[in-house]
Amino acid sequence: MTIRWNLRMILITVLCAALMTSVVFFITKEKEMPATYNVNYAPDYAVSGDVAGLVHHSDYVVSGRYEKFIEDWNMGENHFSEVYSFVVEEALLGDIEGTIHISIPHNILLKHTVDEVEYEAVLNSPNYSKPDFDQTYVLFLKKAQTKDVFGPSSVPFQVEVDSFGSVALKVNTENKELSLTTEQNDTIHFQTEQIELASIDKITGLTKEGLFTEIKTEVAAKEEMN
């Protein structure tokens, strides 16, 4: 009886040990399975693709040409911009003339920590579009609070006018996402907000004359309300 009891206890112990080994192995395998982390940059700013919306959000509307690159500007909180001089040829809204400085948001530095290791990605801001010094632009602006520059009043904020008088609303189309693999074979997917310009763009394809007519109409309506 004692021998049978001992054999039974040994069998139970072996079975329990095997079960515990299986559980530990399963948990270990679960931990080793690669994970995916999504890091999205979605700032709070106005978005508009028509003249009425752009004028509504702006304190200044000017036309003219970019003159030259001035400097890179660390705006704080992992935001970086490029500053250019801009020659104002016509002020359509606001009292502004001569040469001014325009801050074009360029990069956002995104970070994410996995297993106490910090990973980084530098992506273009939604408003970034490198200016062409040979083209005319219409800019929708606000005055920056921390530097003597003018910046975007919304996304987008630049309208490019080519030599044929055709206009195009400009927005970032490059370097909007990046995926990194961690030391543990996990994946971090960094992404800036995607502006679906095609669904809101009511400006691209207009003529220069048509654009200016719409702007002046909306500016007059805005000034009347104020």
Please state the average pLDDT score: 87
Strand content: 35-45%
Shape: elongated
Number of strands: 11
Radius of gyration: 29 Å
Percent helix, as a range, is 25-40%
Give helix and strand order, one letter per element, not per position: HEHEEEEEEEEEEHH
Helical element count?
Answer: 4
What separation lies between the terminal Cα atoms? 101 Å
Which ranges are low-confidence, i.e. pLDDT below 50, for 5 or more consecutive residues? 14-30
Structural class: alpha+beta
User: Quick one: biggest sheet?
Assistant: 8 strands, antiparallel
Structural features, described:
- The protein is 27% helix and 41% strand.
- With 226 residues, the chain is an alpha+beta fold.
- Strands 2, 3, 4, 5, 6, 7, 8 and 9 form an eight-stranded antiparallel sheet that branches. A three-stranded mixed sheet has the order 1-11-10, with no helix packed on it.
- α2 packs across α4.
- The radius of gyration is 29 Å and the shape is elongated.
- The N and C termini lie far apart (101 Å).
Question: How would you describe this structure in keywords?
Answer:
226 residues; eight-stranded antiparallel beta sheet; elongated
Short description:
By secondary structure, the chain is of the alpha+beta class. It has helices at residues 2-32, 51-57, 197-200, 208-225; strands spanning 36-41, 60-76, 79-93, 99-114, 117-124, 136-143, 150-152, 158-161, 167-170, 177-181, 187-192. It is elongated, with a radius of gyration of 29 Å.
